[in-house]
Structures are given as structure tokens and as C-alpha cells.
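Consider this record:
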Amino acid sequence: MAVVPPTRRTQTDEDFSAAVAAVTSAFGDPTRRDIYLFARERSAGATASETAEHFALHPNVARHHLDKLAAGGYLEVNLVKGGSGGAGRPSKRYCASGASAGPLDFPARRDDLLGTLLGKALALLPPDEAEAMAEGVGEDYGRSLAQQMAPGDAHRSFRAALNTVADALTAHGFAAHAEARGSSLQIIAEHCPFGAAANEHPIMCAVDRGMVRGLLAGLYGETVPVTVSSRARGGTACVTSLS
């Protein structure tokens, strides 16, 4: 017997309220609901700095929420050249995706499942081999990201490259920022997108260390990142040091 698809109807205020509630549920953070509404209500969208100022958040935290919404298809990202005459790094402006085009669709979350499967796969290998593989996969991915961001054009400043790496990690759910600590520069990641899977399989921390190495290789030059601490091993944050 043929299944007749339901008739698509005009979105009402009730539909939209239910949709926004689903966004909150899907991403697991009520702050993201308000940020989504903030970007949706602005015809030109919002930047991370505008969002951070409006909600009194650290810019990296605001960017993390916006990138999560963009990754889920709720916001679209437009690059805007910075400074007068287009000088400086392009900034991202986040705009609602299909804001007036009917009910929102909600993709199922896969992050936790993928993280769990990755951890189980690594657990089948000897520890040294698993760590090398995890870091290698992260490094390859980091290099590909760097090529997309600045193909054939490396940053001249190590600090500028490090800030770009932190932005890229934040876009992938790490809520990262770069800062100087003692004689070294470090990337501090206050959130781990691997969640409980990393706690069960701390070897997975090698993936983001590899991403840092790969990104810096493409944006600046070869470096040797060192994991100082990680949330999976009891630290308050994941810290990668670069002397």
C-alpha cells in the first residue's frame, strides 16, 4: 500500500516555537536557543563578536555556539573581508538558514556515536600504535583544513597562525583559544566534542593534538605540539603547548 506524504503547511508561531525548542533539545544548551533567535532576528545575521557582546560571553564561546548551529544546518556562514580595503582575516557572519521557508528540519546527532565507535576501534590496537594512528588521522585532517582556509599561503606570524588554529578547533566543538603561558604559547580547549568516549579512551586526545600539528603545518610550518593536560585525564581543560 502506497504511503501518502503529509501535506506541508504554512509555519505558524506555534510551529516555530516548537522548532526552536527542538533546536535547544538537539544541541543540549539553552543558551544556543537565544543565540539562534538573536542571529535569526537580524537581517544581516550576526558575528561572533556581536553575539559575545550581546550575551556577555567570551568570543570563543560565542563562536562555538554559532559554529555548532551552522554545523547542524540551522545557520549559514558568510565570509566578510575585515578592515578597510579588505585587510585582515575575513570575519564570519552567521545568518538564519531558510528563516521564512517553513518548519525547520532537525538532523539527528551523530557526534556521541562516532566518538564511541572511534574509541572502541582504537582500543583494539596496542596503546602506542593507537596513539600514533589517532594523531596521524588528526594531522591529516588538520592539513586538509589548513589548505581550505589558506591554500598555498602560510601565515607569517606564529601567533596569528595559532589564533587561526584555535578558531578552527572551536568550529569543531573544542571551545579553544590561544594564550601565552610562561615561555610557551598554548592552545586551551575548554570543551571536548568526544565527550564520555574520550573519558573512557583517553588515547583519543591524540586526535586533537594531531589536528593542531596539521593545521600549523599548513598555516605556518612544522611544529611539535605537546599535550600538557586533558579533561579526559582529569584536567580542567585540554592544553596543548608549543615552545
